[in-house]
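Note to self: user wants both folds in one dump. Writing first protein now.
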Amino acid sequence: MREYLSTVSDPNLAHFAEGTPEFDAYIRDMRWAQRYAYESRARMNRELLRSLAQAVSPKRKTKEAAIAVQVVNCHHNYTERERHGGKDLWITRKGAIKADAGDLGVIPGSMGTDTYIVRGKGNADSYNSSSHGAGRRLSRGDAKRQLDKTGLRAQMKGKAWNAGSASALIDEDPRAYKDIRQVMADQSDLTEVLHVLTQVLNYKGTG
């Protein structure tokens, strides 16, 4: 930024200025990455539906699902150009999803709590957004210091999960997250709940 401004009041506020080559390059690469992420999720959906169809109707010879489904594929933690209040703005949804009127979204709680399928209400006060999950109550570091694998196993009782990796998953303990039911109640002016999914299986990559 020092190439374009004489001073930067706070290094944490440094950013690419719109209209510069750096800004254009960043936006181009970011949009490519977002399209890649979207298509990756779409492919996982197709593979999941294909496998499910084979399990439900193994004699049916088809590459497509033999069941009627509605697929929801929504970004979170992303940036897009949108019009709000009569102005074209770059909207960054950090910890959020787009919840314009009619938009379908997925809002999970944690590895041990419910997930919500929602329809956006298009609340202009939130720039047509809602949370993308419960949100953390404890940072990852605090969770590792304060929680233990015995407690995690108790939280995950009755669910199929990679329990052998409990030590590596302490920072994902459901106790590290806010109450998703309260979060959904607090944002009832942003989304309409269509379905509540209760976990029976959870798998997390542990690196």
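First done. Writing the second protein, which came from a different request thread.
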Amino acid sequence: MKRKLMVGLIVVVLIVAAMMFLGCLEKEQKMSFAEIKATVLANVEEIDTYKFDLNTTTRTLLSNETNSTEMTTSINGRGVLDAVDKEMKLNMNTSMETNETTEVMEMEIYLLNNTMYAKLNLGIPGRPAQWTKREMPEESWASQNQLEQQMELLNISEVELLVDEKVNGVDCYVLKIEPDMNKFWNSTMGAAIIKSAQSSALGVDIKKMMKSLSMKEWISKATMYPKKTQMAIRSVASSDDLAIPETEEKFTMTEDMEVELLFYDYNQPVSIELPEGAEGAVGQPLIPVLNQTTQNQTATTSV
């Protein structure tokens, strides 16, 4: 009799648990991607500080009539951002690998008081790392705020809700984001990329080069804050697209970039201070390649 009673109680408990689970599931399913999008955009307005990890891989294929060269560029970085005081710190390690060589460099970037400080270590014996600095216009801050850029893309894009996934053990909604490219080029991120390309010596028409851009966003169910972002960007350019002498050999360059950002430690106290030596930084523009790398990697991500 007792055994039957216990079995009966267990069955009742299982049924109640199942009903509770199904009730929760039904509640989650009723939350549309439009509601998720609206909630995330609203929540981000309350974020004052956060940390992020940045990982990018760019595969470049340069081809001409006789041969081709492949290069893989990998960037691993970790950053801290204070949206209230408009300060940022980012440490990056970069490796550029071809069939013949591998080059490694380290970079530290600080943004304080509308000034960007950068320290580049090329790992060349006898050539010590040097701090440089340049003034940043007030409006350029938005191009450095990783999270704000992701939310701007989310706001101008077509969004599809995918199957839920876990990120580091955290239950997340997964959003597939396809940006409206016309709106993208008018966005903060698009404007930063265009400006960076225009400032280079190659006269690149970046709008013509970029062939595709897609993104996935993982949103924590517990906080409704972004947890992870992945982007895929393809760019194709030929020598005809660039401002180079016609006497140079014709070529085509294809770049496939994959970007991943992890966001964490929201609204936790942070301290961003210039390291020793940065105050004496040389006041000169960064070299064009460094300028473009900084804008693309810190802005898009970047791109």
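Dump finished. Worth passing along: The chain has a mean pLDDT of 76.
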